[in-house]
Fold FecCD transport family protein.
Amino acid sequence: MLATSVALTGISVAAVGPIVFVALAAPQLATRVAGSQGAAVVPAALMGAVLLIAADIVARLLPPPSQLPVGVVTGGLGGIYLV
């Protein structure tokens, strides 16, 4: 199971690119939105999904010669969030 999960993670990162911002921002944003203290796994997972869907939509709405990978869009959003 470990080898399969590592292989699937490697394939998804190779296809999409590193999306580190989601892992950093989703839990903090989820706790702010949900208003809960402590670990909120389900809201963090839902927030991560919403962030990735929004980044994908933004990346796809750009005109064809200037379309960006989702990783670049999430990195830009992450920079704005961290500033």
The chain has four helices and no strands. The chain has a mean pLDDT of 80.
